[in-house]
Amino acid sequence: MRIRRTLSTFVAAGLVAGAGVALAPAASAAPTGTSSLAALLASDGDTFDRNWYDFDILDQAVGAVLAAKPASPVAVLADGTVPLTAFVPTDRAFQLLAKDLTHRWYGTEEKVLTALAGAVGIDAIEQVLLYHVVAGATIDSGTALASDNAVLATAQGGTFTVDVLSKRWGVVQLRDQDRNDLNPFLIRGVLDLNAGNVQIAHAITFVLRPADL
Questions:
Q1: Which of 115, 199, 201, 202 has its CA 20 to 30 A from that of 153?
Q2: Is 89 helix (H, G, I), strand (E, B) or coil?
Q3: 21-45 pLDDT, tens digit each
Q4: What domain count does the chain have?
Q5: What is the largest CA-CA distance in the chain?
Q6: Is residue 45 part of a domain?
Q7: In this structure, what is the dihedral angle of CA atoms 20, 26, 29, 33, given to the nearest 10 degrees?
Q8: Spatial distance between the Cα atoms of 113 and 6, rounded to a whole number of angstroms
Q9: Which domain holds residue 103?
Q10: pTM for the full model?
Q11: What is the pLDDT of residues 184-213, one digit of tens each?
Q12: Sheet with 159-166: strands ordered across
């Protein structure tokens, strides 16, 4: 679902320097492009499909939130002038979340989103989406790999931590606020999406959780 509404006001959450830890500066020049992540998410046809490793459920979830709550801060994803970094779960990641929450396996992307909306409601989906957005910073993959134990503040208000398990092999895990779930990894080869723009995204293997779901 394409996002047409932009956010009139948005307070950037920025970065939290936890215990003196901050993100290392990016080696490359600061990006200046203003193509939004909403445009990127909708670029593959704006519909559900059978590819579990793209981002159709995320795209449709954003649209569902904005349809129900037009003033939601999620609309910042459509304003390409606002710097941010999104850590984007694949459709498979949402399928696994739906299985965990409902104890059922859903065979289509549409059924996954319907099940999630029924299980937790649109407000919770909004909070989960915002928890994947770090506003005010364009964090490329090279910066993330140099930032072990960096604590990132999200547009939802919570934080998660970057855990660089292997800088050599590019193994990075994100530790969220749910101690009972599996923490996601960055997906090598699916990083720096929308590169060159101030809104950038990195694919992750599981959905980040702002609380114990």
A1: 115
A2: strand
A3: 345 444 457 899 999 999 999 887 7
A4: 1
A5: 46
A6: yes
A7: -90
A8: 23
A9: 15-23+34-204
A10: 0.87
A11: 999 999 999 999 999 999 999 999 999 877
A12: 15-16, 151-153, 159-166, 171-175
